[in-house]
Design a protein that fits this description.
Structural class: mainly alpha
Strand order of the largest sheet: 2-1-3
Number of helices: 7
Distance between the termini: 75 Å
Length: about 200
């Protein structure tokens, strides 16, 4: 055996060490992404936030009053109450603005704009979805299951339907509170069905 054919001890050790390392399991790289919730838990959490937005909107309507044909009503001269103009309404969305009453949609909008509350715009859109479906149930029509998320275009249509229903001369304050209660019930049933 010549010197060139002989295996050197250092090379043999390296080759053996490489085979051992190849046989060992490789540790997974650390994950830096946030762990994802179980989809069912995330859905229940979303329904809970929507329910809270509906209940807060209901409490605002009871506390501040309800109005029709405008998002908000404000105090006028002489102690009377008048509907706010559309230009005024955008300033009155802020929760610190004094209002004498709000329509169904206006009460929810004030919740979404309140920095001291956890209610988000997504929660308010979810409340619009549930109110729309509760209105369908109230009218005796088929409704979608609780927690359904629609496209923005369909949500705008739902918003128009709710506004038109709120402004209908036959709609009363008790009807609006009943609709809010029905929407809250939908979220509770939806959360229970998810478990």
């Amino acid at each position: 055996m010549t010197t060139s054919q002989r295996v050197r001890p250092a090379e043999a050790l390296r080759a053996a060490w490489s085979r051992v390392r190849a046989a060992l399991p490789v540790a997974a790289p650390p994950t830096y992404a946030e762990p994802q919730d179980d989809p069912r838990v995330a859905w229940q959490r979303r329904l809970d936030r929507v329910r809270a937005a509906l209940e807060q909107g209901r409490a605002d309507l009871v506390e501040h009053g309800w109005t029709q044909r405008a998002w908000f009503s404000v105090a006028a001269d002489g102690g009377a109450v008048r509907n706010a103009s559309p230009a005024e309404a955008f300033d009155l969305v802020r929760p610190t603005s004094p209002v004498s009453g709000a329509c169904l949609v206006g009460a929810l909008l004030r919740r979404a704009e309140d920095p001291d509350r956890a209610t988000t715009h997504d929660d308010v859109w979810g409340a619009v979805d549930e109110l729309y479906e509760a209105l369908h149930e109230r009218m005796g029509h088929f409704s979608s299951p609780p927690g359904r998320v629609d496209t923005l275009a369909r949500r705008h249509g739902k918003l128009q339907v709710l506004t038109a229903w709120n402004d209908d001369p036959t709609t009363r304050r008790d009807d609006v509170l009943d609709l809010l209660d029905r929407a809250v019930s939908r979220t509770l049933v939806g959360a229970c069905n998810a478990s």
